[in-house]
Amino acid sequence: MAFIAALEALVLAGIRSLDCLAALQYLRIRFVDLESPMPLLNPFFQLKSNQCTGLWSAEILAALAKARPSATYAELSEDFGGVRYSKEGKLVPGATFPKTRPLSMKVASYEALSNDVLIT
Question: What's this model's pTM, rounded to 2 decimal places?
Answer without folding.
Answer: 0.81
